[in-house]
TrEMBL record:
<protein>
    <recommendedName>
        <fullName>Diguanylate cyclase</fullName>
    </recommendedName>
</protein>
<feature type="domain" description="EAL">
    <location>
        <begin position="23"/>
        <end position="277"/>
    </location>
</feature>
Length: 279
């Protein structure tokens, strides 16, 4: 009878109350997720379009929640940012991704870059650069293999401090990418001032590239802009051969997307590498 009562209550309160208590529950679970080792990383290959070889991977975090199963980052990263958990989670991602890529160097002789998503809050912390330095030291990974992915909005919030952080990272040899390029609210003027290596063309411009002439105009312009500024350019969300051909014709440097591979756990990534070698 007790159980029944609970069910009835849940049906009648299928409204904001439920949403709110669900959120509180998720919040409580997120607070203990790190110590319970519930986070893990998937790695998505990034392909050099000239050589057709894997030149890097992007590290993408997932949360193995005991009740909900695997939770995607879009569902918990915003919450983690709100409740002040993004720093410890971000630290874990940075450390784990660098350690993994260093292990692949040691064990497989595979020397590839790792793209690590950095939330604006993390990037703005005064101790961010020293955290990166410490991880590089602890893992022994050379800085040129680390590619920090930051959105335009993330760079705009305090631009004087931002500039200093970027220069300090650059002085170590760490790479900087602008994630979701073209979707932020900023002007282009920061491109002149900020020491950036790569523009990542957002997948919203890539998805319908073959049918949509506006997307074609945007993508070709971003590629020209990048090349004229001596920047590297990578297209995200590449799902078809037609899109690969288009990007090839327009001299895009790199690509990433489900066509080549979805994000993989380290074991599956290693199998994927072996299969590639046999071809
Ligand atoms: P993002 O940085 O733009 O990452 C690309 C997203 O697109 C990933 O989703 C990836 O799985 C997905 N994707 C890759 N190729 C394709 C494709 O061909 N088609 C489609 N439709 N999607 C593709 P995911 O892993 O769910 O990550 C979503 C977002 O969560 C990321 O967007 C990033 O903003 C954030 N995120 C992921 N990991 C981290 C992290 O460690 N730290 C922080 N701060 N944010 C993260
Ligand atoms: Ca990214
Ligand atoms: Ca992106
Ligand atoms: Ca995104």
């Amino acid at each position: 009878a007790k159980e029944r009562g609970k069910d009835t209550y849940q049906i009648f309160s299928e409204n904001m109350n439920t949403a709110y208590s669900e959120r509180l529950k998720m919040e409580a679970q997120l607070r203990i997720a790190l110590e319970k080792n519930q986070f893990f990383l998937h790695y998505q290959p990034q392909i050099d379009m000239k050589t057709n070889k894997i030149i890097g991977v992007e590290a993408l975090v997932r949360w193995n929640n005991p009740e909900l199963g695997i939770v995607a980052p879009n569902e918990f990263i915003p919450l983690a940012e709100e409740i002040g958990l993004i720093d410890p989670i971000g630290d874990w991602v940075l450390k784990t991704a660098c350690q993994q890529v260093k292990n692949w160097q040691n064990e497989l002789g595979l020397y590839i870059r790792v793209g690590i998503n950095i939330s604006p809050k993390q990037f703005q912390r005064p101790d961010f650069v020293s955290k990166v330095e410490r991880v590089l030291q602890e893992t022994g990974l050379a800085p040129k293999y680390v590619d920090l992915e930051i959105t335009e909005n993330g760079l705009m919030q305090n631009s004087a401090d931002c500039l200093q952080t970027l220069y300090r990272l650059k002085s170590h040899g760490v790479k900087i990418s602008i994630d979701d390029f073209g979707t932020g609210y900023s002007s282009l003027s920061y491109l002149k001032r900020f020491p950036i290596d790569t523009l990542k063309i957002d997948q919203s411009f890539v998805r319908d590239l073959i049918e949509d002439t506006n997307d074609q105009a945007i993508v070709t312009s971003i590629i020209s802009l990048a090349h004229n500024m001596k920047l590297n350019v990578i297209a995200e969300g590449v799902e078809t051969v037609e899109i690969v051909n288009f990007l090839n014709r327009h001299k895009c440097d790199e690509m990433q997307g489900y066509l080549y591979s979805k994000p993989l756990n380290p074991h599956d990534f290693e199998s994927f590498l072996k299969k590639m070698k046999q071809q």
